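Morning!

As promised:
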Amino acid sequence: MTTTIVTRFLRRTVAGLSIAAALTLLGSATAYAAPVWERFEPVKALLDGATPRTNGIGLDIPLVSEDGSSVPLTVTADSRMRDDDYIEEIHLFATRNPNPEIASFRLTPHTGLARIATRIRLNETQEVIAVARTNSGEYLVSSREARVTVNGCLTRADTYDADNIMNARYRVPNELARGEIGEVLTMINHPMETGLREGADGEIIPRRLINRFTATLDDRTVLEARFNTSISANPYLRFHVRPEEAGTLTLAWEDETGAATQEKAPLQVR
Amino acid sequence: MKQGNITRRELLKFLGAAGAVSAAGSLGIAGCSRNGAPAGRVIVIGGGFGGATAAKYIKLFNPDIQVALIEPAERFYTCPFSNLYLGGLRDMQLIGHGYEELKQRYQVEVIHTLAEDVDGSAKTVRLADGRVLGYDKLVLSPGIDIRWDALEGYDQAAAEIAPHAWKAGPQTKLLRDRLEAMEDGGTFILSAPANPFRCPPGPYERVSLIAHYFKQHKPKSKILLLDAKDAFSKQGLFMEGWKAVYGDMIEWVGLSDDGRVVRVDAQAGEVETEFGTLHKADAMNIVPPQKAGFIAVRAGVIDTTGWAPVKPQTFESKMVSDIYVVGDASVAAPMPKSGFCANNQAKVVAAAIVADLDGREPLEARWTNTCYSLISPDYGISVAGVYGVEDGHIVETAGGLSPLGAPADFRQREARYAVNWYNAICQDTWGTSDLPLALG
Ligand SMILES: Cc1cc2nc3c(=O)[nH]c(=O)nc-3n(C[C@H](O)[C@H](O)[C@H](O)COP(=O)(O)OP(=O)(O)OC[C@H]3O[C@@H](n4cnc5c(N)ncnc54)[C@H](O)[C@@H]3O)c2cc1C
């Protein structure tokens, strides 16, 4: 169940009830009863004493995932995304992974929509937290429990192509109207080695991560991302762009070894 | 089937206890307790793996409970072994099962119509024929419905051209027709969905047995399996088997290689994947995203995932009391959505209902599952799991897979076990007793 849907559902159908009663009714009160983020150090450090809002932000993760190596996640914050009022940062945390910081994103008014979709690794059942910060310094927090089941039906496979590391794919809209919001899809072939697992020879496989991704429309930043070990192999990102005029969308990835890839896509604006 | 010939009158005579099985209440035939009142009224919706098993075992555990089973079809065609039919190894009639045993031996009132609505507070079920039946306990095992809004271009009309065949019956026949009509050298595409879905190994067994058919009749053909996942059930075993038996006839394209289909053009015989690759097919099988059968929605037992969350110990709905949801419609992960699990869950539900109606606590629940898959008629593989409840969640407590690299006779034995499994579960669920042991 997604927070966004719950929120919408609440507004539409049970507006008359208190929130607590309504959540009990939906059988999903557990995720809200004890806000884990209040006690979670990395989030406390980020908030630095500020009191966040818990509405206006939604985190969508399957309640139960059978494959913890690739769990789809979407975070959405309500925002007009205009110069005077936009979401500037989004941070994702997996509370019980070895490195709890999953990724951080910097957004701009050119992003058009404060929504990021990616795929993450979850070692075990745990709380996943999203924190967003507006350009005026206000914080928004959302948190969800994600269950990961050990499923004997699933065997792990190496999912990346060792011969073509740093090979990227993307999909951008053919054409947008001025000021229209379009979806951008990117994926890069990369192992995202955590430095925590052993190879067949018993030796630790050295850490190798894509640690930075940027999307720029000519000289304007659309999105900047920093990835950590909890982003799945073959980092996948879905985000948006709102062009005011035609330009070239440059998508750039860098990994820790210094390897880099760039893709350029013309964006037509009518 | 032998019991099919016995009329109700003969049966009553045979039982020699007509009084004990006289028509009682609105549900028709039913057992009665000593004081004449039934020990409770249970309605079961759906006569598939979960529902038929639940109806039978409630009667087996306590014949004094009145049980009515609502199922529109007079014959139920199983998805298990429908892949054998597609591969040309079994006739359709051999995967069809009836309800004679439930009616005659277990005194279940089987009503062949659709349940249209459930009122969880009045505790009634409305049938398509207008009747309204009351219950003390309701079991829902409606299986899956297709999410027709989930995949661009894939609606009911498209499924008449590019079948899903994920409910056995006319759709399965249609897919077989498409395969037969395909020319040698053609490309067959199967699109597999993300988790969770009915039968995690199903798409992979299906391409295996279609490859078996191609190898014999259309050896120049190709199979392209486009997948919305990066990992799948028994992956290593399937890949090993495909290589060994079919060379490179089967190509699997996972999520990270742009395998997720986002648009279907059934007319043009074309699918488009996430990053814009177009694939042309001469025959297509789209296994679309799924959700619990609509009656679960009517009963108010599903959440926004489209599936029904249940209390693990009893499979009673977390949302509406006295409604139990078993089989594919429930959220039972890590148990897979399999016929074996549905059958197992139904027995636990039957025991819980019988205990509750008798004022007793339910027993501690344990479940098992084995999914056999056939790569060819003499190449079987399996995955097994044992499940229990810990900290309020279902967990896998033991399990295992067939070994990789096993010798041919090992695979051959597992193929035989698969047939034995099918025959046994159909006997247990519908009482079908004369199924062949031979494969193809
Ligand atoms: C290709 C394929 C291969 C498979 N192979 C295997 C296998 O080898 N082993 C295994 O264990 N599982 C296998 N499965 C999975 C298995 O088919 C399902 O898990 C199983 O059928 C689930 O049982 P169920 O009772 O939930 O639903 P079903 O068996 O589908 O039964 C649901 C029944 O409910 C009825 N119904 C629905 N709505 C209503 C209503 N409103 N009123 C009245 N009746 C209604 C339907 O008509 C249907 O008969 C396979 C599935 C597929 C697709």
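The pocket of flavin-adenine dinucleotide is lined by residues B 45-51, 70-73, 76, 79-80, 82-83, 114-115, 141-143, 166, 198-199, 202, 206, 293, 295, 327-329, 337-340, 342, 371-372 (CB under 6 Å).

Hope this helps with the figure draft.
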